[in-house]
Amino acid sequence: MRDPYQVLGVSKTATEADIKKAFRRLAKEWHPDHNKDDPTAKDRFAELNTAYEVLGDKDKRAQFDRGEIDAEGKPRAPNFGGGGGAGGFEGFRYSTGGSPFGSRGGGFDPGDIFADIFSETLRTGGGRGGAGAQTRGRQSARERPRGQDVEAEITVTMEQIVAGGKCRVSLPTGREVEVTLPKGVRDGQTIRLRGLGDPSPFGGEPGDALLTVHIAPHRDFTVDGQNLRLRLPVSLEDAVLGASVRVPTLTGAVSMNIPAYSGGGKNFRLRGKGLPGKDGQGDLIVSIDVQLPTIPDAELEELMRKRRAEAKV
């Protein structure tokens, strides 16, 4: 495998944030689901994950930089050569006289020398079980690269937002799940669904699903923050004389009294009839839209002429 720094396209002085950013960018670019026509994408993606498994862990990165592990994160076996024996390993080299368990310098723990050798032997098919297998078994899923996050969208009605409850959504993974709408959800808000993304190809935790919520347009209401706005048609006689009118809301029609001589554009507030939020329920702002007769009305015309004449006096 290539040098993990070259695989991720970063320098040896790169910060943890730089490495993470490079990995996310390249992993998204080379994800097999996005490159179904490229047979090399799967191998490239696997190479990226292996590189990040080394460089994304500060301890493993330090080991790699010191030459203690290779580009795949495997311990490098000690050098073997001609000469006498030590502890049953012919030609074992060590830097301090007397014992192969003396310090080798560089901060490496001598107590792990044989464990490293056994681990390397097992990885190359020289044995089964033992220290190497136990070391690998102790690596938790959290230490391995996560699966990729996936993105999805869902469109809900205003009635669904007010009523709350659950709705179903199909994810790019092919899975259909039931989602509980959080209180006060807004158009464009992203909900993170933990563990519902792509599985990790290396046994790590699965990615998350990022669900963007869209609110469907409504035939009656427009959204104004947490409030709703409604233009309510009112007949001319009701506007002049006053009346009790029916007003639609997201939870059913209610009665509202309008006083006499309510002009067009006058607003009325129905408290608690808007959208839910973290701080309570919004209001419904009702704007009067006075409707004129659609057919000629001789009596109304005569009344208007009389009022016009009176106004000129």
TrEMBL record:
Any one of the GO BP annotations: protein refolding
GO cellular component, one term: cytoplasm
InterPro entries in the record: DnaJ_C, DnaJ_domain, DnaJ_domain_CS, HSP40/DnaJ_pept-bd, J_dom_sf
Domain J as annotated: residue spans: 3-68
Residues covered by region (Disordered): 123-148
Stretches of the chain forming a coiled coil according to its record: none
Keyword Chaperone (UniProt): yes
GO molecular function ontology, one term from the record: unfolded protein binding
Keywords on record: Chaperone
Domain of life: Bacteria
Keyword Transit peptide part of the UniProt annotation: no
PANTHER family: DNAJ HOMOLOG 1, MITOCHONDRIAL-RELATED
Name by which UniProt lists this protein: DnaJ-class molecular chaperone
Classification of source organism: Bacteria, Pseudomonadati, Pseudomonadota, Alphaproteobacteria, Hyphomicrobiales
